[in-house]
């Protein structure tokens, strides 16, 4: 799994964007099919895909799996305020909780934004207690996700990059 600063991902050019758009439309497309549809040599497509993968451009496949399908219909975003010298330990503690999907460092009043999933309200309570029990956590604020209005998407940005 990729970890690091938000700015350590390699940039892409218009050809990379076209390749990613084609993959977005058909995630199971073969290298040969991609090369034919894009008018690129097979080796070029293969090399670009390898570079995009190793450069952190592509998220892991698991990002496509919906938590609801695994029995976690309740989602929440938890802001966490931590003792500043404990940020690494708190992050490691959060990573040990299976229901924690993502942890992002923030600027502002809270230090971390934690995306969690739960089976129901009682399960969310249990998870909240686990988060609060991590040494270095000072305060949490939990916000339930009630509805998804816009799915995670990259297509509009890829189209813009492909048109450059």
From TrEMBL:
The keyword DNA-binding applies. Coiled coil: none annotated. One of its GO terms (cellular component) is cytosol. Residues 12-73 form the HTH asnC-type domain. This is Transcriptional regulator, AsnC family. One of its GO terms (biological process) is response to amino acid. InterPro entries: AsnC-type_HTH_dom, Dimeric_a/b-barrel, Tscrpt_reg_AsnC-like, Tscrpt_reg_AsnC/Lrp_C, WH-like_DNA-bd_sf, WH_DNA-bd_sf. It comes from Klenkia soli. Keywords: DNA-binding, Transcription, Transcription regulation. The keyword Ligase does not apply. Pfam families: AsnC_trans_reg (PF01037), HTH_AsnC-type (PF13404). It comes from the Bacteria. PANTHER family: LEUCINE-RESPONSIVE REGULATORY PROTEIN (PTHR30154), TRANSCRIPTIONAL REGULATOR AZLB (PTHR30154:SF34). GO terms for molecular function: sequence-specific DNA binding.
């Amino acid at each position: 799994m990729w970890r690091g600063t938000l700015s350590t991902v390699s940039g892409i050019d218009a050809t990379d964007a076209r390749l990613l758009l084609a993959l977005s439309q058909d995630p199971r497309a073969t290298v040969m099919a991609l090369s034919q549809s894009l008018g690129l040599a097979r080796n070029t497509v293969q090399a670009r895909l390898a570079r995009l993968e190793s450069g952190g451009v592509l998220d892991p496949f698991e990002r496509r799996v919906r938590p609801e399908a695994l029995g976690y219909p309740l989602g929440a975003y938890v802001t966490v305020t931590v003792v500043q010298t404990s940020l690494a330990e708190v992050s490691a503690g959060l990573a040990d909780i299976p229901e924690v999907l993502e942890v992002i460092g923030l600027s502002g009043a809270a230090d971390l934004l934690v995306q969690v999933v739960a089976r129901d309200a009682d399960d969310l309570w249990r998870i909240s207690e686990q988060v609060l029990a991590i040494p270095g956590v000072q305060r949490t604020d939990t916000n339930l996700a009630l509805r998804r209005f816009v799915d995670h998407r990259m297509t509009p940005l890829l189209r813009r990059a492909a048109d450059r």
